[in-house]
Structures are given as C-alpha cells and as structure tokens.
Structure to design on (322 residues):
C-alpha cells in the first residue's frame, strides 16, 4: 500500500475548479485525502483552489477519452466525484448534441476509465431539472423523471449508465439528484444563481427583477450540506440514487425577503413577464438520503443566504468558505 493510502483516500474531482467541486476539494484536503482535479477551465477557475502543491490540477476536457483514461490510470483514484458538466439548461436546448457529448459522452469516458482501477463514481445529477411539471411536490426518487430539456435528459441517461455498470460490473456508482445549490463562490449562471444575482443588486441598492409573480418555488440547498452529501455517498457501501435537497419549497419572494434581512433593509422588487416554460413548483423529498446515508440538510436557508450576501458584500472572494 502506498504512503498516500495510509494517510487517506485519493479522490479525483472532475469540475473541481467549479462552484460545488472546489468546495468538495477543500473538504477532502481538510480531512487528509489527496486530490486530483480534472477541469477544462471553461467556467472553472484555479483561483478557487488552494495554492500550488496542495492539489494536482489536470487541465483536461472530459470528452477527450484518451486523456481521461490516462489521468485515471496514472492517479488510480479510490473515488471519482464527477461534477464537470455543461450546466446551462438553455444552452442544452440550443445545442443538444454538444450537451450530450459533454454530459453523456464525457461521463461514459470516466466510467470506462474507472473500471480497471475500481474507482467508485459519485455523479452530480439534478433533482430540479429531472422531475416534470406534473410531479408531486416534494418529489421522491420513485417519481418517474420527465425532464423538460436536454440537460435533464442527459442526467437521466447517465443515471441509466451508472445502473448498467453497477449491474454488469458490480460497481457502486452513485447519483445524487441535487436541488438548487447555493453558497459562496457560486456562478450566477447556475441553477441557483438567482441568490447571487439578487444579492449583488440589493448590495448595490438596486431593485432585483422577478420574472413572473415570484410565487414559483425551488428547493434551495446550501453548498456545505451538498459537500457533506457527496462525502457520505462516497463512504456508503452501496451505490444508488438519492435526492439531495432541503425538502422545503422557497419562493422567489421569500428569497428577496431573506436577502433584504441580510442587507438590513426592506427590498421592493421589480416584476417582469414570466419566462416561458418555467416550472411553478419544485422541491425534493430527501428522506431516503437521511435513512440510507445518514445525511440531511442542516443549514437554515436564512443562514445560508446571509453567508452568500456577506460573500457578495466582501467582493466575492474566490477562496470564501461555506
Ligand atoms: N449548482 C446547482 O444548483 C446544481 C444543481 C444540480 C446539479 N448540478 C450539477 O453539479 C455539477 C457542478 O455544478 P456547478 O454549479 O458547480 O457548476 P460549475 O460550472 O461551477 O462547475 C462545472 C465545472 O466543470 C468544468 N467543465 C465544464 N465542462 C467541462 C469539460 N467538458 N471537461 C472538463 N471540465 C469541464 C467547468 O470548467 C467547471 O469548473 C454539474 O454537474 C451540475 O450539472 C448543479
């Protein structure tokens, strides 16, 4: 056994220079694991990562099968946290082939590379973009997926591949269906980017613009809780699919209220026409994760939003922690 195995596990984090991935990297390093980041830096930034010598950064595109295979064979990770993705739902509608090439093809490259080294893959799937408009709220994992865009369809397809590999090769690959993740370091373009966008406007004493009536709800889950879910899933003996959410609906109007509280003033939003096709309600039932992984979201939304507001007020430092 190598020295590094005695100290902790070796993890490969794809998308490790991104919002959620960089927080996972920090948590792994903090507990003594060694980490390789695979990222093409298309939206990720190495400035989100600890300084040189602390983490091995490989600038690789996951659609490059040979490069993926080489880095996995060389670093022999115990676990692959797979977060690299094309994350823009609207871009997936405009160019489904590109979305599929990255989100499906790239994942197949990782699954293939992981097989000979026996690495477990923990995949960042989506809860918010997977269950359809007719789904009961909150949705549990038994609700049949009915995605509304190629992004969600690609995530669903990957979940089928994970299941296939688990059945054919006795692997323990896992998918976590994430709610709308928010926290410091988040890119405003992401699924929960509205919190960072509104925080920025309110900090600059501008009115945030709500599309629609503001009663539309999402399951906002704090990034520190999501990191804990990834670590719990990696340690779990079995593979599977779990919802990772706070289990509660929060409306856009609630968000404005909580950000106003963090800023210490009342905020009056502007209203614009609803975006066509936008889902009215969404929340995840995460009881299975609580039962099987011993995980639940513990950060109250007001507290998480106060931390994002403080991060925006402080100029959005790249190395801000949850
Ligand atoms: N943020 C959310 O609310 C949310 C919700 C559900 C699921 N997810 C999933 O979680 C994962 C991480 O999301 P995030 O919000 O941290 O996004 P992010 O954009 O901050 O991170 C994605 C990272 O992947 C990298 N990347 C993109 N394409 C790549 C490629 N072809 N090869 C290598 N690297 C590539 C980017 O440079 C970036 O660093 C994604 O898979 C996303 O679909 C996020």
């Amino acid at each position: 056994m190598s020295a590094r195995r005695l100290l902790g596990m070796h993890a490969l984090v794809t998308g490790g220079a991104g919002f959620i991935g960089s927080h996972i990297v920090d948590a792994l390093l903090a507990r003594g694991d060694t980490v390789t980041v695979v990222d093409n830096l298309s939206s990720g930034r190495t400035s989100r990562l600890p300084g040189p010598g602390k983490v091995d950064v490989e600038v690789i595109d996951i659609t490059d099968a040979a490069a993926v295979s080489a880095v996995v064979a060389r670093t022999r990770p115990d676990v692959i946290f797979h977060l690299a993705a094309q994350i823009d739902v609207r871009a997936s509608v405009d160019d489904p082939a590109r979305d599929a090439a990255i989100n499906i093809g790239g994942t197949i490259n990782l699954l293939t590379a992981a097989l000979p080294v026996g690495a477990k893959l923990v995949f960042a799937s989506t809860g918010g973009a997977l269950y359809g408009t007719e789904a009961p709220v909150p949705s549990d994992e038994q609700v049949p997926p009915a995605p509304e865009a190629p992004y969600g369809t690609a995530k669903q397809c990957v979940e089928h591949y994970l299941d296939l590999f688990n059945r054919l090769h006795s692997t323990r690959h896992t998918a976590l269906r994430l709610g709308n993740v928010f926290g410091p370091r988040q890119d405003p373009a992401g699924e929960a980017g509205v919190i960072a966008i509104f925080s920025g406007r309110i900090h600059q004493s501008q009115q945030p613009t709500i599309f629609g009536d503001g009663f539309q709800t999402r399951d906002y889950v704090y990034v520190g809780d999501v990191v804990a879910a990834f670590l719990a899933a990696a340690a779990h003996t079995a593979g599977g699919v779990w919802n990772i959410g706070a289990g509660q609906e929060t409306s856009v109007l609630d968000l404005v209220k909580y950000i106003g509280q963090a800023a210490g003033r009342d905020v009056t939003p502007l209203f614009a026409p609803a975006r066509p096709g936008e889902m009215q309600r969404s929340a995840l039932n995460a009881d299975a994760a609580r039962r099987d992984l011993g995980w639940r979201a513990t950060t109250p939304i007001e507290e998480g939003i106060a931390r994002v507001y403080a991060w925006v007020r402080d100029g959005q430092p790249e190395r801000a922690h949850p």
